[in-house]
Amino acid sequence: MRIVTFDIETANWMGAGGGPENLDIAIVCAHDSETDSYYSFLESELSQLWKILERTDMLVGYNSDHFDIPILNKYYPGDITRIKSLDLMKEIHDVAGRRLKLDAVAEGTLGEKKIGSGAQSLQWWKAGEVDKVREYCLKDVEITKKILDHALEHGMVKYRELGTTREVKLDTSKWLAPDSGAMTFSLGI
């Protein structure tokens, strides 16, 4: 199964009443399981990403169903929601009963921390520090992929809050099941 783990950093922030679909992409970073490679795409390079996404079996992200996919879909000439999606935040929320930050899950599960925040990334972007934004986004993809791999191997993740580590058991048995949904392709531009 070809899995693309991805994350988006935006070039602007949500204002009052605006949802994720009103944001603009700064950069998309991804890991492609077929090549075991990490990639990054600025907004002007998204056509290269479409070639990868159109041949993937599943997208994996953290808060991706609510945030990343709606943003990405406004740029894609087809419908990215037709690709099977695994939102790790949603899976953890369904068991834990609340939304947990990626940083808390990374620290509890992997003993790692993120190297920044979304707000910090936006500041870097506005200051023209594209390489810092790229590094931050790629690290979030790496952490998300490691959490996915851990969950698939152990059937659980952990999170750390207020000095305490807790475990969240996950039913991963259907995560890698094929999806019969057809993909809509771009014009390959």
Give the end-to-end Cα distance, rounded to a whole number of Å.
25 Å
Number of domains in the coordinates?
1
As residue ranges, the low-confidence spans are: none
- Global geometry: globular
State Rg: 16 Å
**Spatial order of strands in the largest sheet:** 3-2-1-4-5
Q: Which architecture would the CATH scheme give at its second level?
A: 2-Layer Sandwich
Q: What percentage of amino acids are in beta strands?
A: 15-25%
Going by CATH, the homologous superfamily would be Ribonuclease H-like superfamily/Ribonuclease H
Task: Name the helix and strand elements from N-terminus to C-terminus, one letter apiece.
Answer: EEEHEHEHHHHEE
- Biggest beta-sheet profile: 5 strands, mixed
The percent of residues in helical segments reads 25-40%
Q: Mean of residue pLDDT?
A: 92
Structure in words:
The chain has 189 residues and is of the alpha/beta class. The protein has a single domain, classed as Nucleotidyltransferase, domain 5 (2-Layer Sandwich), CATH 3.30.420.10. 37% of the residues lie in helices and 22% in strands. It has helices at 46-53, 64-73, 88-96, 102-110, 118-126, 130-154; strands at residues 3-10, 25-32, 37-42, 58-61, 84-87, 156-161, 164-169. The strands form 2 sheets. Strands 3-2-1-4-5 form a 5-stranded mixed sheet, with helices on both faces. It has a two-stranded antiparallel sheet with strand order 6-7. It is globular and about 40 Å long. The mean pLDDT is 92.
